[in-house]
Every structure is written in C-alpha cells, then in structure tokens.
C-alpha cells in the first residue's frame, strides 16, 4: 500500500511517498525531488520528518523541486507544464497544448501507454546509434530508488513511469545508461566513458532528475 503526503522538512514542503509495510524503516531514497520511504502502519509523520532532517541538510533539501507531477489543473509532460482538462459533457478543449481526459482516473493508464510509446521510440533510436545489435523488450513500471534497470539475460529494459514528466534529454540520459549495460554489466570507468560518449552532460542531467528539475 502506498500513500503520498507532504512533509515539512527543514521548513520546505517535500512530496513523500510512504510505502506501508509490516516492517518499519528509517532508510529512504530520493529521486525526482521526492522522498520514498517504507514505514509501518502506525507511522508518525513528525518522527519521519525528524529522522529525515538528521540525514539531510537544509541546504540539500532546498535544492528539491518537489511540486506534484499532476496537480488539480495541470500536468508536467516531457518537461513542459500543460493545462489538464477533464471534459464534462459538451465541453471542448481550448488549446492544442491541453492534456484532455474524459475521466481523471484515466490519467494513469493514458500516461503509461504514452510513456511506453515515447521510451520505445528513444530506445530504438539509441540502439542504432550505440550499435547494439538487438532490440530490447521494454517495460514501464513504478520504481522506488532508480529510474531504469537492464535485465541482461532477459534482454529487458524497465523504466520508471514518472520519467514521462521530464524532458526528452533527461529521458535519453537514462536510456543511454541502461543501453550501455549491454556492453558493461557494472559501473566501471569504462561503463561511464561509454555513457559520457553518447551523453556528455550526463552528470548534470542526473542532478536535474535527482532534485526534480523537469527540463
């Protein structure tokens, strides 16, 4: 079970995803300007805030862009903020840049398909550029601590569903990282040399993804 809350960390509102489990954990990860943490069913939000503040400085927390990917009337798509329009009967979209849905609960399924289409397009393009002689299978899922994973033996790449909220340049940096694992099954200097060959500003793009800068 998952619950999304806004925590007050060093007086900064931070989107936090709580994963309810039978075990309690003070360990947490952060990506996309959001914190992910496993907690027990009787969690105390103030205690969670204090435990995070012990580990993360105010200076670091201040770097977070922790706004929601999808708000009441907006949605971030490929690094751009679009107006979100939920159509009522007889209502027409005003702008070609609107994201239009018939029901708000349809957003997740629409985004997942769109994410799969976009990332498949980028994987196929970059497979050719990186001279990879196979076509990987691709899966979109929710990932807590990373944005992509290469299952070498299965020839399968998995990507986090929230990547669609970031610019294509940031998405491509993750795709390049995972495709480089076709040649190197580790994070050795040779691996990162390949990543930087195809994505020279990789480190800056990773910083943006970590702290939630979407373009």
Describe it.
By secondary structure, this protein is an alpha/beta fold. It is built from 6 helices and 10 strands. The protein has helices spanning 45-55, 58-61, 107-129, 168-180, 189-198, 202-211, and strands spanning 2-9, 12-21, 28-31, 34-40, 74-77, 80-86, 99-101, 137-141, 148-151, 156-160. The strands form 3 sheets. A 4-stranded mixed beta sheet has the order 1-2-4-3.
Q: What are the defining features of this structure?
A:
single chain, 215 residues, alpha/beta, 4-stranded mixed β-sheet, 3-stranded mixed β-sheet, 10 strands, 33% helix, 27% strand
Radius of gyration: 19 Å
Unreliable stretches (pLDDT < 50, length at least 5) are none
Number of helices: 6
pLDDT averaged over residues: 91
> How many β-strand runs?
10
SSE topology:
Layout (H helix, E strand, L loop, with lengths): L1 E8 L2 E10 L6 E4 L2 E7 L4 H11 L2 H4 L12 E4 L2 E7 L12 E3 L5 H23 L7 E5 L6 E4 L4 E5 L7 H13 L8 H10 L3 H10 L4
Parallel strand pairs: 2-4, 6-7, 8-10
Antiparallel strand pairs: 1-2, 3-4, 5-6, 9-10
Summarize the structure.
By secondary structure, this protein is an alpha/beta fold. It contains 6 helices and 10 strands; from the N terminus they run E-E-E-E-H-H-E-E-E-H-E-E-E-H-H-H.
């Amino acid at each position: 079970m998952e619950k999304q809350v806004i925590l007050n960390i060093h007086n900064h509102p931070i989107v936090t995803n709580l994963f309810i489990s039978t075990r309690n954990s003070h360990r947490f990860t952060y990506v996309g300007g959001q914190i992910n943490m496993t907690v027990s069913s009787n969690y105390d939000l103030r205690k969670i805030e204090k435990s995070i503040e012990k580990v993360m400085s105010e200076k670091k927390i201040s770097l977070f862009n922790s706004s929601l990917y999808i708000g009441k009337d907006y949605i971030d798509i490929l690094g751009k903020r679009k107006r979100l329009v939920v159509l009522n009967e007889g209502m027409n979209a005003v702008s070609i840049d609107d994201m239009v849905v018939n029901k708000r609960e349809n957003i997740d399924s629409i985004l997942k398909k769109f994410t799969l289409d976009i990332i498949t397009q980028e994987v196929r393009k970059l497979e050719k550029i990186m001279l990879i002689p196979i076509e990987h299978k691709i899966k979109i899922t929710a990932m807590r601590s990373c944005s992509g994973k290469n299952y070498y033996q299965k020839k399968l790449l998995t990507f986090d569903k929230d990547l669609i909220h970031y610019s294509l340049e940031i998405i491509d940096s993750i795709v390049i990282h995972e495709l480089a694992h076709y040649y190197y099954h580790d994070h050795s200097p040779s691996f990162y040399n390949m990543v930087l060959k195809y994505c020279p500003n990789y480190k800056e793009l990773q910083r943006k993804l970590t702290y939630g800068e979407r373009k």
